[in-house]
Amino acid sequence: MYDNMDEWMTIRRRVLVEGISKRQVLRDTGMHWTTLEKILEYSEPPGYQRRREPEKPKIGPYLEWIAEVLKADRSLPKKQRHTALKIWERLRGERGFTGKYTIVKDAVRQLKRRQQEVFLPLAHRPGEAQVDFGQALVRMLGVLRKVFFFVMALPHSDGFFVMAFERECTESFGEGHVRAFAFFGGVARRITYDNTKVAVSKIVGSRARTLTRGFQQLVSHYLFDYHFCQVRRANEKGVVEGTVKFARLHFFVPVPQVRDFDALNAWLLERCLEDLGRRLRGKTATKGQLLAEERAAFLPLPSAAFDACRMRSTVANSESLVRFDDNDYSVPVSYAHHPVVVRGYMDRVEVGCRKQVIAVHPRCWGRERQIFEPLHYLPLLERKAGGLDHALPLEGWKLPECFETLRRRLESEREDGTREYIRVLRLLEKHPPAAVETAVERGLRMRAHTRDAIAQFLAPPEPWEGTTFRLDGREHLRQVRVAEADVGAYRTLLACVGGGS
Question: In sequence order, what E strands does 272-395 have?
Answer without folding.
Answer: 310-315, 321-324, 327-330, 339-344, 348-353, 356-362, 370-371
